[in-house]
Amino acid sequence: MADLGTAIVTGAGSGIGRAVAARLASDGYAVLVNDLDPGRAGAVAAEIASAGGRAASAGGDVSSEADVEAIVAAARTAFGPVTLLVNNAGFVHQALFENLSPADFDRMFAVHVRGTFLMMRAVLPAMLAAGSGVIVNVASQLGQIGGIELVHYSGAKAAIVGMTKALAREVSARGVRVNAVAPGPINTPLVMALSEDWRNRKAAELPLGRFGEPEEVAATVSFLASPAASLFVGQTLGPNSGDVML
Question: Is 29 a catalytic residue?
Fold first, then answer.
């Protein structure tokens, strides 16, 4: 198996992040699995290792500057310079706008937006110095079309799309490619935490007629990380069952 370098996948203790970490390991990356829960991160790293891949783990909250520094340091110590960052950490909280508190809003943006910012900020200097690197940010199709009872979540994911485009304009000519993935509803614990009514309404809207699987999103991330995606700059790819068509 080729050695493709070192990848960090945040929020990889379950769902999309877990599938992405496993896929990248099978592609040939050494993967640092991060999750807010260190136990879950360690379990995923052990699964990858048992399948013949290279993986280590680090707990930590991506909205904490100190935790982010520790996550990146753990990857470098275990495997060397970070060549691929997948910003996947996130959570969902469902409420009508009039019932949202400032604390709900602040935590949503702290994890999704500040977390993405801090992780990119932590790995980018070394990538620029090397003249190469890839960043893939996990947004959501709700950042493109909005979602009922998910104003704060939709807003945070839209911010990730905007940051992806802006940073890509700054650094692509210096060898670092930055893109995003905006999944539709995927069969993950995060989506299953939404109400059954919400999930039924959303499924009825999808041209494909079904939710996606984490492995289908992982395939998109794998593509964006590969040389086959060399012309993709500041793009947002949508494995979304047809919920958004661009």
Answer: no
